[in-house]
Each structure stands twice: as C-alpha cells, then as structure tokens.
C-alpha cells in the first residue's frame, strides 16, 4: 500500500519524524507560544482527505485555513503549475504575462457589477492593506470602520481592522480604525428578537457611529460579506444593502472582504452575491487558487480605478501577479466552472450539510446554534442552552472543547475550531458520502461536548 504521494506508510512515517524534528528545531509558528507546541505533521493529501505523520487518514472539514476550495492536489491545477514552471517561472510585475492577464479576466468576469480591474497581491492580508490604501487615496480621508467579530489579516492595518482578540497585542490605537457592532442575532447587542429588528438596529448603530465619528473623516467601511473565522454569521436580510446605502449617502468606500467567503465557499462565486449588493472594492485570496501558490488581490470599481488614471498608485509588490500563482488561479477557476464545483457547494449545503447539522442540533444540548451557507457552517457550542453560556470563553479554549475536538480527530475528522465553535468548512468538491461521513463523526464529538452541559 502507498499513500497518494507514492510513499509507503513506513517511509512516510520516517519522513514525518524527520520533518517534525526539524520543525521544532527551526520553525517559528504563527499565533503560538512556541515552547508548548505539538503541531500535526501532514505527509500527503488528496481530494477531501489528508494523512498525518502516523499514517492516519483524516477527512478535512477545515479545508486547512478554509482555502482548499477545490480540494487537495486537484490534477488540473497541479498540471497547470508544472506547465507554467516549465515555461516562465517568474517575471516582474511591470511586464505582461499571459497567466496574470487571463487570471484577471476570469476574476473580473465573476465579480458583481463592473469591478473589472484586478490588482494582485501575495495573499489576503496585503489585499486588505491595498484596498484600504486605495480608499484613503480616493477619498482623501483616513478613518476606516470595521466590525467587532471579524478577521481581516495579520499585517499592520489588517490586524488593526480585525475585531477579535488577535488584534489586542498589536493595537496601539493609532491605526485610524473604529470598530462597531455588526448584526448577530444569536448574541444580539441590540436586544433584537427578529432578523428585521437586528437589521434595523444594527444599521441605526452604524449610522450613529458614522455621524459621531464625522462622515468627512471616514474613508471606508470594510466588512466580510459573511464573517468567517469570527463565526460565520450570515447577515440578515437588508443589512448589507443598508450598509451600501449609508456608504453612498456619506461618500464612504464600501470594501467587501471576500478572502475566506469568496470563490464558491458559500455556493456562489462571491458571498456578496447572496445579498444583491455591489461594493466598491473586493478583497480576495484563499479560494482563488485554493492556496496552491500564494495569491490574493483587489477587484476595483471603475470610479476607484479612475483615481489612478493620471495619478500613480503608490504601492506594489515584487510578486504581484506571479506567473505560477496566477496560472494556478486560471486552472482553478476553469476547473470550478467546468466541474460545477460552485454549484456542488450550494447543493451540499442545501441538501446535506444544512439539514444534517440542524438534525444534530436537535439531538445535542451542547449545540446552541448552527448557521451558514454552502460549505461554510459554524456550530456554536454552549454549556447552557437557556443562558447561551459558551462552552469556551471568548478569546480562549476549554477542556470541553479540547476533548470534543480530540474525539473528532481520533475518529478521522479534522475540524476548524475557534473559541466555542466548530466550523464545518470542507472543500467545495465534497461528495454527499463524504459529507455524511463527517457528520457522523461530528455526532460523536458532540456527544462528548454534551457531557459538559448543564
């Protein structure tokens, strides 16, 4: 027997042991206290599965960082990278290359409205950095508004825009960022009891924030179309349309962060399409080529792009539109179109994941709420359904969460975990059988979590 990478299990274990030894000796990990780390080693991946250093196969319900939308090792994308490497490995961004040109065309075809100019970056965080820079230069203003319970990246501006605890050690209050509360009915800040009330009161709060901060000082409002890491809170009807109207009224640029929610994750090419809203700028990364080679970017509306028709845009990157990355994007987008992968994500969410998760919620007292779209779902775990006390504190973990996640892993399921939530975010290519396999293992993990409820 061999693994998808051609290694025997024994050879894979030997290689994994060596990789782990070198990792602990030399690799500095992100978002982690280094001394206590015990990271999982991955030796192979294929489709919706990964193999760990001990040879165990796990169903990847995390899509790694919610980015392998097309699954692992898709042959068309692998072949495209190999072909591009044999033709033109790299070239400076000042020069035209066909992979970048075609990737830009394919992305522009799929963006809503007329966001037809594409600026390429290395990933999502620097896409956010450049979107904010464009908005500031376009408006001549500096402040940017973003919501609590959000994540926009780890670079300086992006992490200050972020509305979760990872911002705190990096926030010195001088980034020109103002946070506000977005809609989240399950834990409403507005004492709302219906989605309509939540929308109305959240928009009133946002407008009050704009007025009190001074509309003439605000360059942009940035929102994840569907917040990802912070909890997959699908905006209630009318909210994003209301944000669009407020931005138009006060001359503010509306930036939709689609880094995690874009490229099929919610069952549409871009999550904002669910809400019939066209932003001024869209940031993207992750699913654009499933992370096979780092790539991100900004899709730009004509009125923003026109600002730089005769005025140089003061920004750029050595690897902007890198041929290997954009060739991977071309292959990814074409494969997703030809194989109807976006449609599959929508179908799996509507027929399998959504109903399956709601059925689990009915049976497990540890589940406070399930919510999501497509292959983008959160399971909110609580210690008490009546009080909605979370099973882990905001910004932290708990023995209960650790035990539930360990149960899932031992049974062959890799989950995306944040605070008191389990995120069900498999590749958009997942089959019905694979989705049901994952739900069955999740059932076991939730049984463990049930033991920690009152």
User: What low-confidence regions span 5 or more consecutive residues with pLDDT below 50?
Assistant: none
N-to-C SSE series? HEEEHHHEHEHEHEHEEEHHHEEEHEEEH
Largest sheet: 7 strands, mixed
Helix content: 25-40%
Number of strands: 16
Beta-strand residue percentage: 15-25%
Distance between the amino and carboxyl termini: 47 Å
Radius of gyration: 22 Å
Q: Average pLDDT across residues?
A: 97
Individual helix count: 13
Shape: globular
Helix/sheet category:
alpha/beta
The strand order across the widest sheet is 4-10-9-8-7-5-6
Structural summary, described in words:
The protein is an alpha/beta fold and 454 residues long. The protein has helices at residues 9-26, 63-66, 75-87, 98-110, 124-139, 156-161, 195-213, 239-250, 302-305, 323-338, 341-363, 399-410, 432-450, and strands at 42-46, 49-52, 57-60, 117-121, 143-147, 177-180, 218-224, 253-257, 281-284, 296-300, 367-373, 376-384, 389-390, 413-414, 416-418, 421-424. Helix 3 runs antiparallel to helix 10 (323-338) and helix 4 packs across helix 10 (323-338). The model has no long low-confidence stretch (mean pLDDT 97).
């Amino acid at each position: 027997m061999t693994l998808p990478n051609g290694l025997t299990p024994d050879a894979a274990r030997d290689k994994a042991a060596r990789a782990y030894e070198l990792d602990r000796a030399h690799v500095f990990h992100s978002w982690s206290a280094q001394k206590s780390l015990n990271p999982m080693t991955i030796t192979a991946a294929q489709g919706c599965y990964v193999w760990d250093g001990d040879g165990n196969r796990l169903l990847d319900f995390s899509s790694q960082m919610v980015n392998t939308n097309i699954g692992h090792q898709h042959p068309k994308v692998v072949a495209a990278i190999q072909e591009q490497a044999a033709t033109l490995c790299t070239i400076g961004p000042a020069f035209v290359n066909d992979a970048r040109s075609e990737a830009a065309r394919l992305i522009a075809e799929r963006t809503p409205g007329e966001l037809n100019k594409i600026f390429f970056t290395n990933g999502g965080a620097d896409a956010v950095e450049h979107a904010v820079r464009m908005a500031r230069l376009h408006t001549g203003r500096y402040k940017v508004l973003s919501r609590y319970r959000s994540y926009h990246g780890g670079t300086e501006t992006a992490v200050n825009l972020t509305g979760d605890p990872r911002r705190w050690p990096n926030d010195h209050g001088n980034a020109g960022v103002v946070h506000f509360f977005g809609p989240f009915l399950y834990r409403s800040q507005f004492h709302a009891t219906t989605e309509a009330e939540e929308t109305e009161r959240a928009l009133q709060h946002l407008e009050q924030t704009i007025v009190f901060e001074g509309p003439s000082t605000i360059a942009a409002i940035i929102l994840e179309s569907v917040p990802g890491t912070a909890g997959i809170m699908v905006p209630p009807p009318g909210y994003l349309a209301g944000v669009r109207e407020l931005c138009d009224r006060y001359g503010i640029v509306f930036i939709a962060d689609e880094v995690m929610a874009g490229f099929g994750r919610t069952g549409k090419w871009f999550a904002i399409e669910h809400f019939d809203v066209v932003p001024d700028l869209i940031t993207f990364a992750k699913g654009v080529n499933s992370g096979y080679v780092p790539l991100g970017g900004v899709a730009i509306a004509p009125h923003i792009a026109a600002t730089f028709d005769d005025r140089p845009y003061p920004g750029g990157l050595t690897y902007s539109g890198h041929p290997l990355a954009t060739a991977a994007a071309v292959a990814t987008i074409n494969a997703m179109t030809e194989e109807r992968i976006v449609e599959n994500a929508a179908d799996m969410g509507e027929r399998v994941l959504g109903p399956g998760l709601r059925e689990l919620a009915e049976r497990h007292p540890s589940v406070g709420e399930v919510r999501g779209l497509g292959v983008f779902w959160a399971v909110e775990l609580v210690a008490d359904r009546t009080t909605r006390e979370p099973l882990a504190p905001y910004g932290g973990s708990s023995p209960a969460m650790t035990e539930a996640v360990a149960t899932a892993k031992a049974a062959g399921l890799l989950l995306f975990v944040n605070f008191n939530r389990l995120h069900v975010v498999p590749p958009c290519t997942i089959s019905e059988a694979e989705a049901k396999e994952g739900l069955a293992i999740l059932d076991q993990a939730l049984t463990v979590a049930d033991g920690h409820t009152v």
